[in-house]
Amino acid sequence: MIYSIEERGAFLLATSAGQQIKYGPIQTNVDLAVEKDIKLRGGNTVTLFAIITNLLNNMEPGAAYTAPAALGDWYNMGLVAPRPDDATYLQRGGDPSYLTRFRGNPRLVDFGFRVNF
C-alpha cells in the first residue's frame, strides 16, 4: 500500500485584514497492489495480481480550481467547482466539466496474471 500526500504551496489571499499567506489544499492518494505466486509442476509459476490506484476515489481539485486566482474561493468556501452564479455554469445547466476538473484519475482497478516458465 502506498499513501502519498502533497502540499500545494503558499499563495497570497486578499482579506479584509490585508494580504495573508495561506496554503492550498493538501492532495492525498492511496494505491494498493497485491500479488499471489502459484507454483506449478516443472518449476513454472503463475502470478495473479491486482493493482488499485486511487483506492479511496479521492477527487482532488485540479489546476483550474487551485490556481492563485481561484484559491480564495477554495479557502473561503471550500469551493472546487464553478460558483452557482457563474454565467457559463448557468448557460449550460450544470457543471459540464465535473470529471475533468479534478486532478489525477478516478479509482482504477487492474487485474492480471503472469506466467513464468
Give a written overview of the molecule.
By secondary structure, the protein is mostly beta strands. It has one domain. It contains three helices and eight strands; from the N terminus they run E-E-E-E-E-E-H-H-H-E-E. The strands form three sheets. A four-stranded antiparallel sheet has the order 1-4-5-8, with no helix packed on it. Strands 2-3 form a two-stranded antiparallel ribbon. Strand 2 and strand 3 (18-23) form a beta hairpin.
Q: How many whole angstroms does the radius of gyration measure?
A: 21 Å
* Strand residue percentage: over 45%
Strand arrangement, major sheet? 1-4-5-8
Main sheet specs: 4 strands, antiparallel
Q: In whole angstroms, how far apart are the ends?
A: 28 Å
Spell out the helices and strands N to C.
EEEEEEHHHEE
Q: Judging from the principal axes of the Cα atoms, what is the shape? A: elongated
Note the main attributes of this structure.
two-stranded antiparallel ribbon, single chain, 117 residues, 4-stranded antiparallel sheet, mainly beta, 8 strands, 3 helices
Secondary-structure blueprint:
Blueprint: E1 2-7, E2 10-15, E3 18-23, E4 26-39, E5 45-53, E6 60-61, H1 63-66, H2 71-77, H3 87-92, E7 102-103, E8 108-116
Provide a concise account of the structure shown.
This protein has 117 residues and is mainly β.
